[in-house]
Amino acid sequence: MQNFLFYKLHGRGIFSQLHLLFQLCFSFFRENLVWTDKPKLQFIRGLILLTANICFFYAISVISLAKALTLAFVAPLIVTAFSPIFLGEKVGFRRWSAVIIGFIGSLVVIRPGFVEINLASVAALGTGIMYGFYLIITRKLSTSDNPLLTLLLTGVVGAIIVSTIMPFVWVAPSLNQWSMMAAIGIFACIGHLFLILSLKYADASKLAPFSYFEIITNIIIGYYFFGDFPDNWTFLGLFIIVLSGIYISRRENIVKKIK
Questions:
Q1: Which of 52, 62, 258 is nearest to 137 (CA)?
Q2: Of 27, 116, 142, 220, which shows the fewest CB atoms inside 10 Å?
Q3: What distance in Å separates the CA atoms of residue 83 and residue 95, rounded to the nearest whole number?
Q4: Which residues, 6+ apart, have CB-to-CB distance to 77 below 8 Å?
Q5: What is the chain's pLDDT, residue by residue, as a tens digit (259 residues)?
Q6: SS3 1
Q7: SS3 158
């Protein structure tokens, strides 16, 4: 299992990041992108995303895809909780209450004291926490840096860090596995570019709940390919987390209309 994890992480990492660099270097010169004024923040963003990927790959190697994703869905709650500090967005009592209820939903999934807490569940929860900060930093950078530059620098950070670790844990992939890693790189590149563009035109706390649509496809994929189906407790926790996120989004819209 450990070899599988390192292969998935570092094999996928180096291939997808090199693919990303090749694609975006052309855009860099074509678009005449101006260098970032916030290199430290760009580095932190790339590091956070890489760490979140490590945690998520480990989580799905031990627990079901649906459970790991459910715990990772605390990301919108993290965005709401820390937006006042990092983005200057006001969060009222009702939205704070929704954040607290959402975290209770994550506890329902983990069920501490009733089910032994494993490292994979903690890693999945950590994925959501880090991804929330990733969204906040993306929103902060979207006001100053070109989206393509942000995407390029994220790839650079990941490629450099992963390349230093990969020789020690390398497992040679087959041709089919190379193809799958290429697909991961392409879809990740497109997805992150869309994410950066969306955060350029809307508040992070407003966009975050849209990620809940992902759970539908992941439940289907998890069941069809791996035979995993969420238990009742996971569904209950998911319902609580999603409901909290939707309430936060609706409350955000109401507050903006009042203003």
A1: 52
A2: 116
A3: 12
A4: 98, 99, 102, 103, 132, 241, 244, 245, 248
A5: 444 444 444 444 544 455 455 555 555 555 556 777 888 999 999 899 889 988 988 888 888 887 888 888 888 788 888 888 887 877 777 878 888 888 888 888 877 656 667 888 899 999 999 989 998 898 888 777 877 777 778 877 887 888 788 777 777 778 887 888 777 777 777 777 787 777 677 765 566 566 666 777 777 887 888 787 778 888 888 888 888 877 777 776 676 666 6
A6: coil
A7: helix
3-state secondary structure of 34: coil
DSSP-H helix ranges across 32-174: 39-60, 65-72, 75-86, 93-110, 119-141, 147-169
Helix (H, G, I), strand (E, B) or coil at 112: strand
For residue 115, the SS3 value is strand
Through-space distance between the first and last CA atoms of the chain, rounded to whole angstroms? 53
| Spatial CA neighbour of 99 closest among 253, 251, 256, 259 | 251
Residues with Cβ within 8 Å of 159's Cβ and at least 6 positions away in sequence, in order, are 13, 14, 17, 18, 20, 21
Residues 6 or more apart from 65 whose CB is under 8 A from it? Answer: 218, 221, 222, 226, 228
- Contact (Cβ atoms closer than 8 angstroms) between residue 240 and residue 108: yes
How long a stretch of residues is the chain? Answer: 259
